[in-house]
Amino acid sequence: MLYFISDTHFYHSNIVNLSAFRFEGFENRILENLEKEIKAGDILFHLGDFTWTLNDEKGFLKRWESLPCRKILILGNHDFKLKDKLLGYFDRIYPLYKIIEVEGRRFFLSHFPALDLRKKKRYLNLIGRVRELFKFSNCDLLIHGHVHRNSFNIHCGCHVFDIPCFNVNVEFTGYVPVSVYTVLKEVCLDR
């Protein structure tokens, strides 16, 4: 089974102050859900912002390592500084995107959406690149993270460019990994 998750932000202690949808102990909730769901032979795509540090004082990274699946990371903005050191936690790392095919549909996996409607001017070049590559690659769906749930209800703007998307940031998924079949069921892709 293929699964997707994003924005785990392990050891990002200040994120509970930045997001009304994070809580003390969110890391344990994420890991408990992964440990329940993920089986040997599964592939887990992490779409960026994995951890803030590799100092594993609470054992989160050790628990991550023990997951019995193949783990693939598409780098997020918080992963750039650690990217070479993250190889110990993933079977494969991609710098911006990965395209996969499932049941005849092309999924474009990236940390970044095709447009971020929040008033942040960072990463505009990467977001623009995602948009260009998605269209050029003739993909059916963009699966991303990066945009966090917020009280202003401002999310990604992929729809502005007619790009169907699915945000797998844990704040939108109830801190559980999302299976490829859930994506196919929830996002009706007309052919």
Topology record:
Blueprint lengths: L1 E4 L9 H4 L7 H12 L5 E4 L13 H6 L4 E5 L17 E3 L2 E6 L2 E6 L13 H13 L4 E4 L20 E3 L2 H4 L4 E2 H7 L5
Parallel strand pairs: 1-2, 2-3, 3-4, 6-7, 7-8
Antiparallel strand pairs: 1-9, 5-6
* Structural Rg: 16 Å
How many strand elements? 9
Broad CATH class: Alpha Beta
Q: What is the terminal-to-terminal distance?
A: 23 Å
Order of strands across the widest beta sheet? Answer: 4-3-2-1-9
SS-based class = alpha/beta
Query: What is the CATH architecture annotation?
Result: 4-Layer Sandwich
Low-confidence stretches: none
Q: Briefly note the CATH topology name.
A: Purple Acid Phosphatase, chain A, domain 2
Number of structural domains: 1
How would the global form be characterised? globular
Largest sheet: 5 strands, mixed
Beta strand %: 15-25%
CATH superfamily: Metallo-dependent phosphatases
Number of helices: 6
Name the average pLDDT: 90
**Share of helical residues:** 10-25%
Order of helices and strands: EHHEHEEEEHEEHEH
Question: Any overview of this molecule?
Answer:
InterPro entries: Calcineurin-like_PHP, Metallo-depent_PP-like. Residues 3-149 form the Calcineurin-like phosphoesterase domain. GO terms for molecular function: hydrolase activity. The chain is an alpha/beta fold and 191 residues long. It has one domain: Metallo-dependent phosphatases (Purple Acid Phosphatase, chain A, domain 2). The chain has 6 helices and 9 strands. It has a 5-stranded mixed β-sheet. A hairpin with a 2-residue loop joins strand 5 (97-102) and strand 6. The longest helix is centred in the C-terminal third of the chain and has 13 residues, at 124-136. The radius of gyration is 16 Å and the shape is globular. It starts with a strand and ends in a 5-residue tail after the last helix.
